[in-house]
Amino acid sequence: PRAMAKLMIQANKVKHVLSANTDIPVFIDALQDDINYQTHISRAKFEEICHDLLERAAKPIEAALKMANVTLDQLDAVEMIGGAMRVPKVQEAVREALGGNLVLGMHLNSDESMALGAAFHGANVSTSFKVRHVGLADVNPFPIAVDLTDLSVGKEEKKSGGGLFGKKKDDDKKKKKGGDDDDDDEWAKHATIFKLGSKLGVKKTIAFSYDKDVHVEVNYEENDNLPIGTGLSIEQYDVSGIAQFAKEMADKELGTPKVSLQFELDGSGITKLIKAEAVVEETVMVEEEVEVDDEEEKKEETEEKAEEKKEDDAEKEAETETKEDDKKEEKKEEKKKKKTKTVQKEKKKKHVRALSVNSYHVGTIRPYSPEIMEESKAKLDALAQKDKERMMLEEAKNKYEGYIYYIRNKLIDDEEDVSKVSSEEQREALRKSGEEAEDWMFDEGFTADLKTYEAKYEELSAPAEKVFFRVAELSARPKAIKALTSKLDKVEALMKKWETTMTHITEEERKEVLDKVEEARKWVEEKVAEQEKADQTADPVFTSAEVPGQTKKIESIVGRLTKKPKPKPEKKTETDADKNETTSEGESTESEDLDAKDAESTDESEEKEEGKEEEAEEKKDGDEL
């Protein structure tokens, strides 16, 4: 309500003023039923009224210290930001929450600092800007957990979505932390993947062994920070392909697949399953070639050497020193000798299968799907069309009402001119039509649609426009006739001038123009005579718009004649007799001829310039027509 809005505005003003003053007079003009409100409030009274709100100022500090796992002794300094830091009672509450030992820093503009910091953080997050990095690590405000169940069970319970307030049907499933149970209980797992206060932009993977398709629920865990009434379900997934992969591995007599699900908490705080795969490890025996020492050859050589020593001791004793040197060299060569041998070794082989993931949402708040997007666009288009129709209807109403007043004012303001071109019956009909239109508008027209208004406007304006058009023609026709007569006089004057200035225009061509001028004058005289004889209350014989069109043909002909080029002057050819006379005259006559030629060339150039000036002037006269 308007009264509550006025109270809120004044209360905010009181808070600002009392932050620097001890009291303030309060006055609200016409708070309710034109009754003014006036009072006087002090800072002590204001703090008494708001004591429960001021006590809440310390709670976020305690929650922030607890989340950061920091004690008051570990704090070095405190800087106050935000508009509320100017309220003295808020400063006192914050000081008490910090133990009273720390000095509250107020070195920054509390409002601008927050806006500037938000702008820098937005620029760091955005890919459209390149700015210096501002160290700010955003954290997850709510713990996020994952619940795993068998896909067949999950499909039956998908409608619950964790419940409106986080209560599931089977709460005991959330308490299970281990693997499969030997009893008949349904398989289920629960894990908190992103704890309260964990950094954004991280990925975590959970792994478990299972041989059936699973249903994955990503939910908020119940927490005091979560707003009351918030649905816990974020997104749900049906992960399929595990059972088929497990069957294939069982046919090969291999173990149960190990399923890995990777989740991401992006920079916007949204959790998604980004990767799902199953892995089975198989131990296989492979043949490999390895290098080994040749021990057997060493033994055979040793036996042969012993036999040779028994048969020929004398020779060996004589050559003892030489053989000892040879043996040392042979041993060195034997140590260097290697041979390759094929052996069987165990090796791990991984069978990896990417799993199919189908995601969907439950609950009242869901992201836009293509279907919902199209539905929303259709709704917006329908609303826009209704707004357009409403505006067009309002415009039609205003136009209709405005024309009613236009008729009324025109009959009064231009009564003398209207009476010249209309009868008393016509004027009375116009007055009556305006009154009837006004009565209809405020009666049936209140609920009429756009088409009805458009039809009623045509019905109202058609007879009135005829009368008002005749009124306008009373002054418009004489002006048009006067302008036409002036233009025809100019054409006749131009034709007279062309007789001397544009001799290349023939008399027939000038006569053609003058004939058209005479036709136009005759048309004007006939139409004026007919109009004078006609009934002035009927439609006019001719209109002012028809008059200027009578000179179109004349202008076309004059424009064509203006562009007609002048004929080139004929060149004089000398005869043989003239040439002989010129030759016999002598040197004295040659100089006189040169002077004469110079004079002739000067005269020709002057004539050309005069001709150009005349052409330009004639063209200008033609353009003016």
Features of the shown structure:
13 strands; four-stranded antiparallel β-sheet; 625 residues; 52% helix; single chain; 18% strand; 19 helices; alpha+beta
Q: Please, could you describe this protein's structure?
A:
- By secondary structure, this protein is an alpha+beta fold.
- It is 52% helix and 18% strand.
- It is built from 19 helices and 13 strands.
- The strands form four sheets. It has a five-stranded antiparallel β-sheet with strand order 6-5-8-9-13. Strands 7-10-11-12 form a four-stranded antiparallel β-sheet. The protein has a two-stranded antiparallel ribbon with strand order 1-2.
- Strand 3, helix 5 and strand 4 form a beta-alpha-beta unit.
- Helix 12 runs antiparallel to helix 14 (424-441), helix 12 packs across helix 15 (450-501) and helix 17 (552-562) runs antiparallel to helix 19 (587-624).
Query: Helicity, in percent?
Result: 40-55%
The shape is elongated
- Termini Cα gap: 71 Å
Number of helix segments?
Answer: 19
Number of strand segments: 13
Order of strands, main sheet, comes to 6-5-8-9-13
Q: In this structure, how is the largest beta sheet organized?
A: 5 strands, antiparallel
Helix/strand class: alpha+beta
User: How confident is the prediction overall: mean pLDDT?
Assistant: 81
Topology:
Blueprint: H1 2-18, E1 23-32, E2 35-42, H2 43-49, H3 51-55, H4 59-68, E3 78-79, H5 88-97, E4 104-105, H6 110-125, E5 144-150, H7 151-156, E6 188-194, E7 202-209, E8 214-220, E9 233-240, H8 242-251, E10 258-265, E11 271-293, H9 295-311, H10 313-318, H11 320-336, E12 338-354, E13 356-360, H12 370-413, H13 415-421, H14 424-441, H15 450-501, H16 507-533, H17 552-562, H18 576-585, H19 587-624
Parallel strand pairs: 3-4
Antiparallel strand pairs: 1-2, 5-6, 5-8, 7-10, 8-9, 9-13, 10-11, 11-12
Helix pairs in contact: 12-14, 12-15, 13-15, 14-15, 15-16, 16-17, 17-19
